[in-house]
C-alpha cells in the first residue's frame, strides 16, 4: 500500500500554530522509540471527517479539526500513517507551538509498537497495582489494558532548567513562569492530539505521573529532572467518542465593543 502525504487539513492546521519565534532544532527534545521487531499493519483509514481545501476557508478547516478532536478510548495497535509522519507531526508541534518568553521548555518522548506496550504492561500496570486497593485492581487493569492495546504514546515533559533560567532573568515574574510552563505544555498536548486525529487516529490523554516517572526515565534515558505532565495514547479507532454536552455560550463568552 502506498502512503499518502499529509492531508491538506493537517497542513493547514499546523500552519495555524506558527508563531514568530526563533526556532531550535527539535531532535534533542523529541526522543523517538520504535520497536523494530514489532509486527504491525499500517492502513489508510477512510476519513469520516470532511475538511475544506480552499485557502479561502482556512479558518473553517482549522475549526473542523478542532471540532473533530475527541477522546477515543477504544483503540487498536494499527497505525494509519507511517511512523515518519508521526515524527513529523510531533516535530512541527514542538517547533511552532508558542511558549512564554519563547522558553521552548517542552520535551516529548514518543514510544511506538512494542515500546508502547512495554510502557503500559511493564511500567504503568505494576506501578498502579502497587498502590491500588485490591478490590479496585481488576477494573484498573482492564482500563490499562485498553491503553496498551493502542499503537503509541506521546509523553509530554517540561524541562525545569528553562523555567529556572527565566525566573533568574525576569525576577518580577518568577512566580508566574511555572504556571506559564504548564500552559505551553497543554498547548503542545492539544496540537499533537488534534493533528493525530486529523490523520485518522483516535487518542485519549492520561496522567499516571508521578508513579511512573522514575522507571520511564531509566528505561528510555530521560533526564530525571524533567517533569512528566501527561501521556497521549493513540491508535486506530476501534470505537466512537461518547456524547458531549455543552454549557450555554452565554455563560462562558463575553464580548464588549463589537461593531458588527
TrEMBL record:
UniProt keyword terms in alphabetical order: Cytoplasm, Nucleus, Oxidoreductase
Species per Swiss-Prot/TrEMBL record: Exophiala viscosa
Location (main, coarse): cytoplasm
Name recorded for this polypeptide: Nitroreductase-like protein
Nitroreductase domain mapped to chain residues: 66-236
SUPFAM superfamilies: FMN-dependent nitroreductase-like (SSF55469)
Gene Ontology MF terms in the entry: oxidoreductase activity
Location in the cell: Cytoplasm; Nucleus
Organismal lineage: Eukaryota, Fungi, Dikarya, Ascomycota, Pezizomycotina
One Pfam family it belongs to: Nitroreductase
Domain of life: Eukaryota
The keyword Cytoplasm belongs to this UniProt entry's keyword annotation: yes
A biological process term (GO) from this entry: cellular response to oxidative stress
PANTHER family: FATTY ACID REPRESSION MUTANT PROTEIN 2-RELATED
GO cellular component, one term: nucleus
InterPro entries found in the cross-reference section: Frm2/Hbn1, Nitroreductase, Nitroreductase-like
Record-stated family: Belongs to the nitroreductase family.
Amino acid at each position: 500500500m502506498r502512503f499518502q502525504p499529509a492531508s491538506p487539513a493537517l497542513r493547514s492546521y499546523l500552519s495555524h500554530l506558527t508563531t514568530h519565534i526563533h526556532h531550535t532544532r527539535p531532535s534533542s527534545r523529541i526522543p523517538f522509540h520504535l520497536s523494530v521487531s514489532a509486527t504491525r499493519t499500517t492502513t489508510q483509514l477512510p476519513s469520516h471527517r470532511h475538511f475544506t481545501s480552499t485557502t479561502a476557508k482556512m479558518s473553517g478547516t482549522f475549526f473542523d479539526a478542532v471540532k473533530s478532536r475527541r477522546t477515543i478510548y477504544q483503540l487498536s495497535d494499527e497505525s494509519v500513517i507511517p511512523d515518519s509522519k508521526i515524527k513529523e507531526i510531533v516535530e512541527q508541534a514542538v517547533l511552532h507551538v508558542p511558549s512564554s518568553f519563547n522558553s521552548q521548555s517542552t520535551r516529548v518522548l514518543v514510544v511506538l509498537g512494542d515500546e508502547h506496550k512495554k510502557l503500559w504492561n511493564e511500567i504503568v500496570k505494576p506501578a498502579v497495582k502497587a498502590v491500588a486497593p485490591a478490590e479496585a485492581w481488576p477494573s484498573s487493569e482492564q482500563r490499562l489494558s485498553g491503553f496498551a492495546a493502542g499503537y503509541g504514546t506521546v509523553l509530554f515533559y517540561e524541562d525545569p532548567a528553562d523555567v529556572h533560567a527565566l525566573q533568574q532573568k525576569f525576577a518580577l515574574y518568577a512566580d508566574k513562569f511555572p504556571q506559564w510552563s504548564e500552559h505551553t505544555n497543554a498547548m503542545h498536548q492539544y496540537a499533537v492530539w488534534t493533528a493525530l486525529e486529523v490523520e485518522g487516529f483516535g487518542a485519549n490523554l492520561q496522567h499516571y505521573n508521578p508513579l511512573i516517572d522514575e522507571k520511564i526515565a531509566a528505561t528510555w534515558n530521560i533526564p530525571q529532572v524533567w517533569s512528566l505532565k501527561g501521556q497521549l495514547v493513540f491508535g486506530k479507532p476501534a470505537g466512537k467518542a461518547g456524547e458531549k454536552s455543552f454549557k450555554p455560550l452565554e455563560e462562558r463568552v463575553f464580548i464588549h465593543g463589537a461593531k458588527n
